[in-house]
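FIELD: query
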Amino acid sequence: MKSNSLKYVVIFVISLFLSFTSKGQSLQNAASVEAETSSFKVNVGADIVSRYVWRGTDFGDSPSIQPTLSFSSSNFEIGCWSAIATNSFYREVDLYAKYTFKSVSVIFTDYYVPSLNGTPASPDTRYFAYNNDSTAHTFEGSLLYKGNEKLPFWIMANVFFYGNDKRWGYDAQKDLNADTYYSAYFEAGYTFTVRENSVDLFAGFTPAAGAYGNTMGFVNMGLTGYRKIRITDQFELPVKASLIFNPQASAVFATFGITL
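FIELD: result
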């Protein structure tokens, strides 16, 4: 009798173990599928900044609202970024695609700027007009190297190769023929932390006259500080402030922004 009872107990324990093992394996498989599914991400956000200063130039001369929408999966990301000046004198809508392998990203960007500080930015400001001589679109190719936590620096190279990189007034022959200037911009930066807040130091350089200035030189130097202000136990508001110098234009900017 004791032998039969013991046998039933052993059978029950083994059955219970197999049941939990089977459930555990099912949960593990479900978690794996969920992880694969969650590799596709959607990002929606916006910055509100006191001034839109990009690569050493102020665009819009007013506060700017800058929404972002992006989709990413694995190493690939596509998205849209925009800037709308609150004085209605500047508008920009950019589409981009980025592929990242380890620490290196290859980026293609389509900048669309129909109005520059209240005046048409190109002969044809329609969105679906892509004629190289008259479009308001500008295509750019970029390479970005971004280090890790041990070496938190980045190096970036950018060049305009199609569209509205023309008529800058620095080369009479190019302006007459509506030739592309192939404006280039190179930037290096370093990130460090101060009491859990991060700071970016950066320096940007253009090798020739074009979109960024009238000659070779540094056009964008400064620092940006980032901080999160705790609002509630479950919500922090990211803010940032920048001090930016453009040595070539002898200009300085101080900006403040909020990220939502």
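FIELD: remark
Residues 2-37 form the longest helix (36 residues).
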